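During the no-cost extension, the postdoctoral fellow (Dr. R.K.) reprocessed legacy sequence entries with the updated structure-token encoder. One reprocessed record is reproduced below for audit purposes.
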Amino acid sequence: MGKYLAILGGLVTMAGGVLLVIFVWWREFYELVFGVIPPLLFFGGVIAFIAGISSIKDSIRTKKLEQELKEEEKEE
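Re-encoded structure tokens follow.
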């Protein structure tokens, strides 16, 4: 019985939240969403930049290790 009550309570609360956002706090919600977009883009760009640098470093390191391995095989 408790599970069903929790589901019903969640649905009622969710519907109430959607109604309040649409009819009462639409302007505030709109400003919040558009206020979050620039920081998300900025931090997403920072993460992509760092990932790209890391990938380049890994590629250089891999090429260097392959070259050292080839040199060791030639010596033997």
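Residues 2-75 form one domain. The helical segments are 2-23, 26-75. The remaining legacy entries will be reprocessed before the final report is submitted.
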